[in-house]
Known about the structure:
The complex is a heterodimer of chains A (291) and B (432).
Chain A: H1 3-35, H2 42-60, H3 62-84, H4 92-114, E1 130-133, E2 136-139, H5 140-162, H6 164-174, H7 176-181, H8 186-212, H9 218-233, H10 238-258, H11 265-277
Helix pairs in contact in A: 1-5, 1-8, 1-9, 1-10, 2-3, 2-4, 2-8, 2-9, 3-8, 5-6, 5-8, 6-8, 9-10, 9-11
Chain B: H1 2-10, H2 14-42, E1 45-51, H3 58-77, E2 86-92, H4 97-109, E3 115-117, H5 122-135, E4 139-141, E5 158-160, H6 165-179, E6 183-189, H7 192-208, E7 211-218, H8 226-235, E8 239-243, H9 246-259, E9 266-271, H10 274-280, E10 288-291, H11 302-312, H12 323-342, H13 347-354, E11 358-359, E12 368-370, E13 377-378, E14 381-386, E15 399-405, H14 407-410
Parallel strand pairs in B: 1-2, 1-3, 3-4, 4-5, 6-7, 6-8, 8-9, 9-10
Antiparallel strand pairs in B: 10-14, 11-12, 12-13, 14-15
Helix pairs in contact in B: 3-12, 4-5, 6-7, 9-10, 12-13
Amino acid sequence: MPIATELITHLLNGLVLGLLYAVIALGFMLILGTMEVINFSHGALFALGGYLALALQPHVGWWAALALAPVGVGLVGLLMEFGVRRTYGRDPLFGLLFTFGAALAIEELIRIVWGSRGYTISAPAFVAGPFQAGFFFYSKYRVLVAVLAVLLLGAVWYFLDRTPYGAIVKAGAYDSEMVRALGIDLARVRNLVFALGTFMAGIAGVIAAPMWSLKPTIGAEAVMPAFIVVVIGGIGSFWGAILGGLMVGLVSGLSNLVVPRGSILVMYLLLAVVLLWRPRGLMGQKSVLEL
Amino acid sequence: MGNRSTHGNKGLTRRQVLKAAAGIGAGVGFIGNWRWARAQAKKPIVIGLTCDATGTFADSGQAERRGMILAIEEFNAKGGVLGRPIEHKWEDTETDASVAVRKAQRLIERDKIDFMMGALSSGVAAPLSELAQRYGIIYFNSNSSSDTVTNEKCQRTNFAWDANNWMFAYALGPLVAKELGKKWFLLTHDYVWGKNATAVTRDVMKKVGAEEMGELFIPQGARDFSAQLLRIRSVKPQVVIANMAGIEQTALREQAAEFGAEKDAAWVFPQQDFPDMVTLGPKKSFGYFCTTWHYTLNEPGVKEFTERFQKRWASAPIPVPDNVSCNGYLAARELLRAVERAGTTKSHDVIKALEGHVIKDNFRKFPSVIREWDHLVGQMLYLARTKKESEMKGKYDMIDMMSAVPPEVASPPREISKCKMQSYAETPVYGG
């Protein structure tokens, strides 16, 4: 494999990883940006998505599991929001503590239902194995991951930017009193945004499971890069989350080519460099993290 | 004076009082001792099981535990050992050294266990064996395979039941070089066992004249192996020696199938635990490997042991005995037999009963021996590959034992041992 082909393959790998991080981060950011709640349970919900798909897949197939498992996670999010809403407008620590408790509870629930052992998940049969074009080869499943991630990000962008509901969500985040004064039921909007954010965590969990395998603590490993992505991109910025995700993915993909052991370290280095240069992240606004 | 004499005649004399007191004292003492002796006779022998149920070795940890429990129950069915029933107390060591040490300490200090056994990860087994030595409690390292625990870090109280890296590498190396090629690429699990396995592999490479094409470290807990698989494809080795274990190994194989990397080179997994193969299934368990045992072996006692195991663990995730659960069973059985031979649970006496002991009914062709100088259980090894689905006679009939290596060939010779074991005087006496 010539070096250029190897470089391209590693970059492609970083791109896929980055898009997946962006999906995880966007769900996290939606909740943080709209409700100013640092949803610590985002990782646990990501894991729950993977586990629900693991349970559903043998019965309904991969596509149906991809649709149903995140809906299940979204419902959990919907219910969680009834607890979280009591923390709105208060010290962000309350929301953090509530979701931290929820994260522990969900992880323990996973242990009770599926046990503590790990599961490796096969890619669906229609994208099993690699494709090859001359020197270039790549995993079919990862291409599917990239396509699904782009579709999801596109759908969220469309929802936030092109629909009246998106406008309400953004307005609610900007000036909640005015939105209420206009007669909009903000509590319901927030409830649905929380469900949407957790839905994103769930769907990312389903997509990532064949790449990362499943274990009860996988959520903690996913939420940390997501948090880094959000901070790099800037709180409240849709394009920031995508830019941050791609940067983290590409930097760790490239480091795999040069210093494979440093692929985690470079994420933190990137975070440090970006924050030194722009303390609010690349495209961020003033946020709860500055309180 | 007169008063005293009159008083003495009417009541008890001082001598009588003393006699009565002595008699009562002796009686109470006797009853107390008798009760104590009875209580001791009935007091259970408690074995602490330090088996993982979380992390890299969750599956194998529970498999070894099933083997241990079966042996303990078989002894209890025969009336226990030295007239005492045997109990077991389990802690999930979570494939984490600090968790394992904390829980082992709790077993020793709070639960007052008499013996301790269980380990898959060498990163867990090494600190547990050091802890055990400090207390003087006998610890059976049932399934970890780094040679350091029977080499420079050997302990008087520690016994290693699994074959080790040296054995696996030296058994496989010559065959791999001859049959599969001499351009080798190394994948090293980034902890004590993996590093040790790669160090031994390099020794073997010198011996067989193999060339090293590169090495990549795999951190514990890593899940995405695409970068490593891409590197292997670009380097084009003939052989990949994957010194990886547990869930990371299964995840790597899963992704190798995703990238088609199983066809890029001949894959060799020097150490292969059966529970990981079950997780993968026959299609993805590609490559060559070494193992110590499988229930399909046609050797004395295997059939009966397998039947007993299947009866006891019919609903277990892996309802047949494998290399891990067989090690667990033999370790627990031999510990209890050694207690019987020693006639006590006192650690020094039990260690003496174990050292040099030959295990004939080990479900293999040649007996195993508990080596006196390093406490390694010298045993047979099998070179193996995964069967194709068409060759399998049942769901768990996955292993084709290609050839067997007898214990004297498979075990590291004493001349190369770096083990300087503590004397008995330096080892605290525990229990009894």
